[in-house]
Structures are given as structure tokens and as C-alpha cells.
Amino acid sequence: MSEPKPPTPTPGDTYKGWLFKWTNYIKGYQRRWFVLSNGLLSYYRSQAEMGHTCRGTINLATANIAVEDSCNFVISNGGAQTYHLKASTEVERQRWITALELAKAKAVHMQAESDDSGDECPAAPPSSGQGGGCRNLEIQSTLRTLGSKVEDLNTCNDLIVKHGSALQRSLSELEALRVSGDVGDKMKQVTERATLFRITSNAMINACRDFLSLAQSHSKRWQKALHSERDQRIRLEETLEQLAKQHNHLERAFRGATVLPSSFSNPALGNKGGVSGKGDASDEDDDNEFFDAMEDPAEFITVPADPKYHRRSGSNASGFSCETGMDDQSVNFDELSLASNPESPQTLELEPVRQRRTRIPDKPNYYLNLWSIMKNCIGKELSKIPMPVNFNEPLSMLQRLSEDLEYYELLDKAAKCQSSLEQMCYVAAFTVSSYSTTVHRTGKPFNPLLGETFELDRLKDCGYRSLCEQVSHHPPAAAHHALSEKGWTLRQEITLASKFRGKYLSIMPLGSIQCLFDKSENHYSWKKVTTTVHNIIVGKLWIDQSGEIDVVNHKTGDRCHLKFAPYSYFSRDVPRKVTGVVTDKDGKAHYVLSGTWDEKMEFSRIMQSSKGENGTEGKQRTVYQTLKAKEIWKKNPLPEGAENMYFFSSLALTLNESEEGVAPTDSRRRPDQRMMEDGRWDEANAEKQKLEEKQRIVRREREREFVKAASTPEEADGVETGTEASEVSDESAHPDNYQAMWFDKFDDPASGETLHVYKGGYWEAKEQGSWDMCPEIF
């Protein structure tokens, strides 16, 4: 400011008055009552609101003050809050500017002093109790007293300078008037000024003495309190770190103790709440070892079936026709038919096929504060927020979808089942198995670019091949198609919605998954459950799956209801527990499934059901009498050193392996993802930003083309009847305006859902090496 500033007001001073504040384009500037006090500028609709309703407050310590014209000025604190204000006159505006600048300077000065003193008492933990609160009040009171004393010293200094100057002038005038007759009057005036100067000097001396005394009396106490607060903060940080480590150790110990195989096989644990018993070789009586009763809040419980059911040999259908032939290993419903079938998957796996890689470069140990980035994402849709590759794993979302096929053998076996109910059990087990790869995978997959594809050709290895394509960017949606020589087709379209809630991150997969079998023409569909990433702020990240899945056979009406129990420290159940019941179209239960989504699933055939006792919530639970539980699916062990390779499974390690002949849009060709896998994270971050900016440019170009097309005579009538330019822009961003390369939208009459279905042509184009139609996205 070029103009001299007025004297600094005392800490208790406030500045009030009417200003016009910009509200919106409809109402324009509105008259508001503003109050400037203690470095804060607040406003109200009227003076009467000051006692109860504040409309907004901005802290001047971090604010910028800018003058626009003679009456207008702007106050902003970096984008979160911006006030466009207008005074009635230029003089009034200058008064406000002066007051605001002074208040800002004082607020910055007080904040700097607070930071220098290390005073963090207001952020003290609750454990400090009432003593900490009293100490804070005492310090604040002392600071206010010292502040007032300093202001008194400033005032006395100004008065001393003023009266000293006046005294000097009087003495000079006295020298000039020695010879005149007015010496008496001048002597009297000098005496008065000298008296004022003496009084002011005494006041200055007294104020200095009081300030010095007060500062000395509190200096030692403040130093002691400061050291105490610093020590306490250090102890709290160390305690918090130790608690986080103890939390992780206890959690690992608890999970390790509850997921041991013995917990599934030991009959003594029958009352501890678990899943079906495994039946070790040491069991003496197979007729008496079945399963463990399920605890509340389960909707049903299971009890051993009558032994007479175990002696049946010819009356039971499917794999249970020979119960004595089942050992304690993994058994399936169609085990006998698979063992005698020369086309079983086991014979195919013996063929020498391409050797694929078993390792990738170890994950670099780059530290990045997750909370420093995620704190700005609370409540937002994370798919629209650019994230550094430090939070990623070197796979795209398309490759993660392809990982669902890791346990494709379940669908191969399901395709050979004669009974739709048995087939339902395998489809349900396949549904659960797709989550087993996520238990340690806390890294975020790369968001695919629009038009990006990924092929997984395992026709020679496993008898299937699949193709994924990113068919929409906002919202992100991927279409997946897998076809097997064993007579099944898997197709899905998944749209991910994610929200960060502060302590955890929720990922909600939207869309449908469908499985079709050629021989039986059975058509299944289901949806995915919610994935939650915990301990975002402190502790080790861990993942949980929770929710319910209904697997429906649209041809027969059979249904399997799966329940993924959320993890709880206080539950006596096995962590990551999954239970399910297979019912026919009439609602009659035939099979019970139980297990965990990260280890294994078991099934039991229901021989009889009845209504049992009431649960803890007063609901009557169904009691199922079942045969001995057998294993239907078990997770493959992770490769050696997986903890250094993003906890990838054997299949995941091969997904980003370079292959010849794939489309130019394939995820394996994505440069930032390849750089991250090679450990060049800085280069990967730079390349990722280039690809995202390139995608935004293409998107804007597509929007311009859409707006241009909408301006044709055929569209003009629609625009004239009220279509806004913003609406045209929104329409252009709709995924319908992007035509996928290999998928078309299809209205499925069986499930009543609309999804992208493979339209063919990809594998033919690969054989011919003709990729001219593919867009350039990398």
C-alpha cells in the first residue's frame, strides 16, 4: 500500500459494516453484514443474525486480497473460498482494504509466533484430560495479557515520540523568545509539555517493568511446558506406531490361528463356528464327522444326516451315487465321470506348451505418503482422480478381469454335469474363487484407456481364450468375453464405482456376469460384491469382501444365494467366511456351500430340512441335515517370492508378458505400465500423464464432432426448443457415442439386462495380422 497505514488496532478491536457480496448470476450482488475480528472475516444477512447464524467465515492468515476497481475487491484463500465484494464508495472500500491488510498481517504474525513456539496444545490428544485443557486456557490468557501489554508499550512509545517532539518545539520557541515579554507564557507551556512527557515516560517505564516481570515469571513455566508437550508428542507418535505394529501382528496371528486346516477338520471345534469339516485320514468314523454348526447371524444351521443316507448306493443321483468311493481329498460331483473321460482337463495339461515366465522384477521400495494424497479425495469418485503409479500394480483392470479365469477348471467340470443343481454348485464355487487373488492385492490396477484391449489366449494350454475391451471411460466400463472348447462361454460387463470414506475405500462393481453352457443350454447370471480397502490412514492395508450374491439359472429357475460375511474382530467365525444354499425353482434346498473366499469352498448335499430354533434376532432358522462335506475348490499356492512381486498369482505373473501378434491396443503394449513393471516409476508417472492428456484431447475432439453434428438442420429444431449447449456437451460424453471395436450392445432376453457382447472378428484379424481398424491410443 502506498498510503500510510493507520495505527495497528488492539487485539480486541473489530471492524463491522455493510458490503455487497456476489451470490450468483440470478441474484447478483446482495447486501450482507460483515464483521472482521481476530483475523477472521465473517458475514451475516443482517445484524440480528450475529448471535446465532453465521453465513460464512474466511481466515485472513491464508487469504489473498485483490482490488478490482474503485469499489470492488476479492478475497480468496486458494480456491476453496472466494468472496467477491463491493463497497458503496471508494472511501469505504479503502477503509475495508486497510482494515483487512492490518488484520491479515496481525494474523500471519500471530500464526508465525505460534508455530515458532511449538505450541500444539489445541491438538493434544484426549488422554491429556482436563489438565491439558486448563493449561491451554492459561496459556491463551497469558498470551492475551502479554499482547495487551505490548500494545500498551506501542501506545506509550507513540505518545513519547509525540510529546517529545512537542517539547523540542517548545524549547526552540523559547530560545527565540528570550528577548520578548512572552517568556512567562512560554515557560508555562514548556512546563506543561515537560510534565506530560514525564508522565508518559513513567507510564512507559511502568509498562516495561510489568511486561518484564510477567515475562520472567512465565518464562521458565513456558519452557518447561514446551518441553513437556514436545516429549508428549514424541511419545504419542511412538505409541501410535507401536499400536499399529501390534495391530498388524495380532491380526496376522489371529487369522493364522483361525484358518489353519485343523480348524476345518477337528471335531472338537464344532461349537466354535466354522465351515464344513475336511475329514482327515486320522478320522475314525466318517459317518460321525460332517461339519461344524454355523453361528448367528446365519440364516440356517446344519446337523449330521441320518446314517441311513450314507448307506444308499444306487438311489442317489450324480457324484453321490457312490459315497464310499470318496476319500478325504478334493472330491467333485462328477469325479467318476471325469476320471473315466479321456478328454478330461488333466490329460490336456500334460501336453507340452509354451513355457511362460514365473517372475517379474521385484517391487521397488519407494515411499509415498498415501494419506497426503487420499485426504483430498474423501467422498469423491476415484476413477476421475489422477493417481501416481506408486499406488498401482503393473496390471490393467482388463487383466484383473481376465484373472477371474484362474480356476477355469470349475467351469470345465460344470459343463460335464448332468444335473443343473450340481452345475450350480460349480458355478457358485467359480464365483467365489475369483476373489481369492485379491486377499493381498492392495495395489490399484491401471485404469484402461478408452478402446484398450487385452487378449488371453490359452487355447492350447487350457482350452479357452478371452478378450477384454474398455468400452466406456466415464463411467469406466469393461466388457469381457471368454470361450472354451469344453462347452462354456463367460461374458461380463463391469463398471466400477469407488468412494473414499476417510478410513477405508469402497469399490462397488456394477454390471452383470453371465455364464452359458452349450450342452445343457443353462444360462447363469450374477453380480459382484463390494470390495473394501481398510487402514488407509494408519496400519497395514488389508482387503475385505462383503455382500450377497444371487447366482440364477434363468432356464431352470435354480438359485444359489451366497453370503460374504464382513470381517469383524469380535466375531468367532472364520475370517472371510462365505456360506450359500442351492435351491430349485420351488425354493427347496439341495446343497449347502461353505468356506472362505481366500482359501477353499466345500459342499454338502442336503438330505432333509426343517425349521429350527430362533436366532439371536428372533428369526427362525432352517436346520439342514447334510452328508459329509467335501472340498469343491481350493486356492492355488502363491509362487515363491510373491510378496516382492505385488502378491501376483502364477497366472497374474504371465498376464503382462510380451507376446507377438497381439493388437496394438493390447494392455501389454501400454508404455507406462511396462515402465512400472521394470521399476522405472518416475518415467512411468510422466508417461501416464501424457497418455491421460492424450485421451482427454481425443475426448474433447469427439465432443466437438458431436456438437457439430447436433447443429445440422435435423437437430436444429431440438436445439431451438430448449436444448442447452451444456446438455449437448453432456450427451457427447455418454458412452453410447463411442463405438466399441469388438463388442456390441445386446439386450439379453433371459436376464433382462443390457450388456456389451462379443461380435466377433478379433481372432480372425489376429490370424491375418490386420489391425488397421484399431485406434492409436498409446
Task: Please describe what this structure looks like.
By secondary structure, the chain is of the alpha+beta class. Among the domains are: 14-111, Roll (PH-domain like), CATH 2.30.29; 359-613 and 620-684, Porin. It is 34% helix and 24% strand. The protein contains 17 helices and 26 strands. The strands form 4 sheets. The chain has a 15-stranded mixed beta sheet that branches. Strand 18 (542-553) and strand 19 form a beta hairpin. The relative contact order is 0.08. Mean pLDDT is 77; it is low at 1-12, 118-132, 258-296, 311-350 and 714-736. It holds the Pfam family PH. Residues 226-253 form a coiled coil.
Compute the average pLDDT. 77
Q: Describe the largest sheet.
A: 15 strands, mixed
- Shape category: elongated
The fold-level CATH name of the domain at 359-613 and 620-684 is Porin
Structural class: alpha+beta
CATH architecture level-2 label of the domain at 359-613 and 620-684: Beta Barrel
Portion in helices: 25-40%
Q: How many DSSP helices? A: 17
DSSP, total strands: 26
Radius of gyration: 38 Å
- What distance lies between the first and last C-alpha atoms, to the nearest angstrom? 53 Å
Q: Which range does the strand content fall in?
A: 15-25%
Q: Which CATH class of the domain at 359-613 and 620-684 applies here?
A: Mainly Beta
Low-pLDDT parts are 1-12, 118-132, 258-296, 311-350, 714-736
Biased composition (Basic and acidic residues): 666-679
Protein name: Oxysterol-binding protein
Organism: Notothenia coriiceps (black rockcod)
Family: Belongs to the OSBP family.
